[in-house]
Amino acid sequence: MPSALPFRLPPPAAGRVDLLIVAGEHSGDEHAARMVRDLRARDPGLAVAALGGPQLAAAGAQLLHDLTASSVVGLVEVLKNYSFFRALFAETLRWIGEHRPRAVCYVDYPGLNLRLASALRERGLSVKGGGGIKTLYYISPQIWAWKAGRRFAMARDLDALAVIFPFEVQCYADTALPVEFVGHPFVAPGHTAPVMWDPAGPVLLLPGSRKQAVARIFPVLLAGFRALGEREAVVLYPSDDILAVLRAANPPAGVRLEKTGAPIAASAVLTSSGTMSMHCALAGIPGAIAYRAHPLTYLMGRWLVKVPYLGIANLLLNEAMYPEYIQGAATPAALAAELRACLHDPARQTRTAAQAVRLRESLAVTANGTVADWLARRIT
Question: The dihedral of CA 135, 136, 141, 143: what is its sign?
Answer without folding.
Answer: positive
